[in-house]
Amino acid sequence: MDLKVLHFTVFGAPISINKLYYNRGRRGRILSEEGKKFKRDVGYIALEAMRKRCIEKTSEPISIYIQFFFPTRRGDVDNCVKALLDGLSRVVWNDDSQVADNTSGNYGNGYRFRQITEKHKDKENPRTEITIRFYES
User: Which of 52, 90, 107, 130 is the most buried (most CB within 10 A)?
Assistant: First the structure.
């Protein structure tokens, strides 16, 4: 089994999924302009890192290691993970079902996903560091 590793950084304070959407009554939750920009930026950063490493979008098992560096001790890691995975979906992997949960395990269609998340404080340089391992058969 071959292994490719992709590492990239998204600069700026980590963003919660709650900031990406707003409620529109009966129309449900709508992606905000800030949300559109965040998803576009995260996708672009990931895509550029993938191009440099000659890595293509995958439908194979992956693992992801995320380090959030917040400007303060406050910050909801779970909601930031959701926002980040939203931005990476369909850029790095084909389908959200590949990242069905925040724990190790096997999911539909035999996809395997493992996620490890860490939270840190860095007032001077808030950012999110992402490492993705691509497992190819």
Answer: 130
